[in-house]
Specification:
Length: 185
């Protein structure tokens, strides 16, 4: 009898985004969502982190959309695109926490969470960024510790949710198919 194999590391979370895209019109929904996330992060970076006027956001978008591969990468239907979103979102939270509204903190944190749920390697990337940030703060200026405590709480929540999600996925696959998912080399 044929044995069903489920691969671990293939995100059902990112797969859900693609599924909704397919259901709602042939993947355009997924591309638009990824493009909106890129535009949102660029907006928050330019306007909140750098403190520049909205005009600079528009100019930056025009330059990025015309003279960079951003539109191409934002349209890739692969979870890898969220690695860049994770890095930029983390940088925004790490450097601009006090300048962000609660809504902006929540949306940016949700992008981080989706990124770690979209691909298992993004969890390692998030932990590495956090370790480097904490190391920098500890070695350079301990007074900055207060500024990153919320960032560490967000990262801890993302890590716990990602690990629990992976455990629940493995449990559900084991119950449904009689064998756990595998992670090939």
């Amino acid at each position: 009898s044929a044995r069903r194999v489920v691969l671990k590391g293939r995100s059902i979370t990112y797969g859900a985004l693609l599924y909704f895209g397919e259901v709602l019109g042939g993947m355009w929904f997924s591309i638009i969502i990824q493009s909106l996330i890129a535009a949102y992060l660029i907006f928050v970076f330019i306007v909140r982190t750098l403190g520049l006027d909205f005009r600079y956001f528009l100019i930056s978008c025009a330059v990025l959309f015309i003279a960079s591969p951003l539109p191409f990468f934002a349209s890739l239907l692969m979870p890898d695109v969220f690695a860049g979103f994770l890095i930029l979102g983390f940088a925004i939270l790490a450097t601009s926490w006090d300048r962000l509204s609660h809504f902006e903190r929540g949306i940016t944190s949700a992008v981080l969470l989706f990124a770690v749920l979209a691909h298992t390697t993004h969890l390692v990337l998030l932990l590495g960024l956090t370790a480097m940030t904490v190391g920098y703060v500890v070695l350079s200026d301990r007074s900055q510790w207060i500024n990153i405590r919320w960032l560490i709480a967000i990262v801890a929540a993302c890590v716990v949710i990602a690990v629990l999600w992976e455990v629940m996925f493995s449990f559900a696959v084991s119950r449904a198919f009689g064998s756990p998912p595998i992670r090939p080399p």
